[in-house]
Write a structure and sequence with these properties.
InterPro entries: Alkaline_phosphatase_core_sf. By secondary structure, the protein is an alpha+beta fold. The chain contains 2 helices and 4 strands, in the order H-E-E-E-E-H.
């Protein structure tokens, strides 16, 4: 398998694993393929799951956005027209983060 060309931002969490100070991101990126959890709803895709989250919010690649601080079971996605001022700042930041991640599986 040929690996995609990836431009990395140079951020690492290794120092934090060693208990040393670091320069953490404001968000965490996660990728799961093939989708390994049977309880994941179909609207999140058939096989690939891509999302970015912080301690309060979570955005999936398909646009579903959750306040995981209050809705940790992800039952009520936040509609874009209902975003608060804070959420209007977070959403595009997460979109940019997702756009930096290379597509691994295009099915």
């Amino acid at each position: 398998m040929e690996l995609p060309e990836v431009k990395l931002d140079g951020k690492t969490f290794w120092s934090r694993c060693k208990g040393e100070p670091g320069e953490p991101r404001d968000w965490i990126f996660q990728y799961d393929w093939p989708k390994s959890w049977s309880w994941i709803p179909d609207e999140l895709g058939e096989e690939e799951l891509v999302w970015v989250h912080d301690h309060k919010y979570k955005l999936y690649k398909n646009g579903l956005f959750y306040d995981i601080g209050h809705d940790w079971e992800e039952q009520c996605p936040i509609r874009l027209e209902k975003l608060t001022v804070e959420q209007k700042e977070i959403y595009p930041k997460f979109e940019r983060a997702i756009s930096l991640i290379p597509v691994i599986n295009s099915t």
